[in-house]
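User: Just a sanity check before I run the rest of the batch. Below are the structure tokens for the first item. I only need the designed sequence back.
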């Protein structure tokens, strides 16, 4: 039997890399798409690395459509790509803010749209396929110095929910997983004081999030666990 196939957009580090590593451990054919080099040699682990900047429209289209043709089967897409930073809104350059908002939203739109035909085919041939968008509780809870990050997180959540409704008849299960503070290389750079001051003693790990992602991927085919919020046990608010 052909192994299930997963694309992890933004899989070079952090949550995406943890999702890719667990996919490999579970026997998935694993493709990592990112604009930066992975933090470890994932090719040696058995994954395929495809370099692509999802903010470059034509490059994203050519790369992702070609990837779908090459692989022949696609069962899941996990979008972890993004990177909006934080800071006092009034002190930051407007065009930088626009670019960061685009980074956290266009990556989802392009990855899902260009790989959707392959996901629909996978669902027809194998019963179901999945789209998982990694988001943040900042999309529903306001924090200081997180205007763009929070707005983009809200957009990612809305994209996941709208996709869930629109794609359900194709048996493509879409969901967003909104996380609390996760200790990754990226969050170390965009620390939100209101978050880290409260839960720095016990943050989530990238492996924690990956475990929940794969739990949702392995759910029975007639079940879609969606609109998920994932926070550390220590965290009493979301």
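Assistant: Here's the designed sequence for the first item:
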């Amino acid at each position: 039997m052909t192994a299930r196939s997963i694309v992890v957009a933004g899989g070079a580090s952090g949550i995406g890399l943890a999702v890719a590593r667990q996919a490999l451990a579970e026997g998935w054919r694993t493709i990592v798409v990112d604009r930066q080099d992975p933090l470890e040699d994932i090719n040696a682990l058995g994954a395929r690395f495809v370099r692509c900047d999802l903010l470059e429209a034509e490059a994203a289209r050519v790369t992702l459509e070609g990837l779908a043709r090459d692989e022949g089967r696609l069962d899941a897409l996990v979008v972890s790509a993004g990177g909006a930073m934080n800071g006092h809104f009034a002190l930051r350059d407007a065009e930088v803010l626009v670019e960061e908002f685009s980074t956290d939203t266009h990556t989802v739109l392009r990855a899902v749209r260009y790989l959707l035909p392959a996901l629909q085919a996978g669902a027809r041939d194998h019963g179901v396929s999945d789209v998982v968008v990694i988001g943040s509780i900042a999309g529903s809870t306001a924090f200081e110095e997180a205007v763009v990050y929070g707005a983009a997180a809200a957009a990612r959540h809305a994209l996941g929910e709208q996709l869930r409704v629109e794609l359900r008849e194709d048996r493509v299960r879409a969901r967003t997983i909104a996380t609390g503070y996760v200790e990754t290389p990226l969050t170390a750079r965009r620390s939100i004081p209101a978050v880290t001051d409260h839960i720095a003693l016990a943050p989530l790990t990238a492996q924690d999030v990956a475990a929940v992602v794969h739990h949702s991927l392995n759910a029975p085919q007639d079940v879609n666990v969606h609109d998920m919020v994932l926070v550390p046990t220590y965290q009493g608010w979301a």
